[in-house]
Amino acid sequence: MAVEDEPDTVDFQCTTLHYTVAMNAFDRLVEMDNDDDGNVVLKPALAESWEISDDGMEYTFHLREGVTFSNGSPLTSSDVLYTFERLLTYPESCNQDVVSEIKGAVPLMNGETDHLEGFRIIDDLNFVVTMEKPFAAFLPCIAMPAGSILDKETTEAAGEKFGKDPESTVGTGAFILTDWTPGKGLLLKANPDCWDGKPGFDGLDL
Predict the structure, then answer these.
(1) 3-class SS of residue 16
(2) Which end of the chain is less crowded, N or C, counting CB atoms within 10 A of the terminal residue's CB?
(3) pLDDT of residue 185
(4) CA-based angle 102:103:109, to the nearest 5?
């Protein structure tokens, strides 16, 4: 697969250009797809279902059971919370608008608090997101590449290496970033344990 130029990072929270790794090695809670008539629709991904309150203020998500990151760690609600909070607070982040309408997002971005008020964990597979005000575009926003879900433990340990070091760039997607040689390209190999099934080819050479 050809790409226009070599990225300086594949950290999807910190780029608006390089999303190939995000879309192949990571997943989002929901995905955008086309129906039979060519219309863009939202479909379940890491979240197998969700409910929206009548006033449009609360989204209750239910994660799929048995989803693991490529390092074997299970996906939990805590990983989603970490993803959203990192998106709002990481110094190099440039995609905060994906989750900026969640209640308490702005105070968190401004350093006035250390937690995202509008995210409530029910248990490992269920959580509630409360908006600052009704925001109909919330689901399409978190379906964007910047809404890709991170493994909290691995990403925290990686620090600035995330998005640059393949071993630290761990997702739930159909492919795994296994090699990145500057000047020569990136290699992604099929994830045999992907929750959505093993992909139909062995890898991507970028």
Answers:
(1) coil
(2) N
(3) 87
(4) 80
No. of helices (H) and no. of strands (E), the chain: 5, 9
* Phi, psi at 173, each rounded to 5°: -75, 180
Alpha helices in the chain (DSSP H): 20-25, 77-89, 105-109, 138-142, 152-158
CB atoms within 10 A of CB 183: 5
- Give 1-12 as a 3 state SS string: CCCCCCCCCCCC
Give me the half-sphere count of Cα atoms (radius 13 Å) on the Cβ side of residue 34.
4
Residues composing the chain: 206
pLDDT of residue 34: 84
Mean pLDDT for the chain?
Answer: 94
Query: Is a pLDDT exceeding 80 seen at residue 151?
Result: yes
Backbone angles phi, psi at 198, to 5 degrees: -65, 135
Euclidean distance between CA atoms 204 and 206, whole angstroms: 6
Q: How far is CA 58 from CA 23, 145, 148, in A?
A: 27, 22, 20
pLDDT at 1 over 80: no
Token output for 128: 């509630």
Give whole-number Cα distances, 70 to 30, 172, 199, 204, in Å: 19, 6, 14, 16
DSSP letter (8 states) at residue 201? S
Distances from the Cα of 49 to the Cα of 39, 41, 46, 99, angstroms: 20, 14, 9, 19
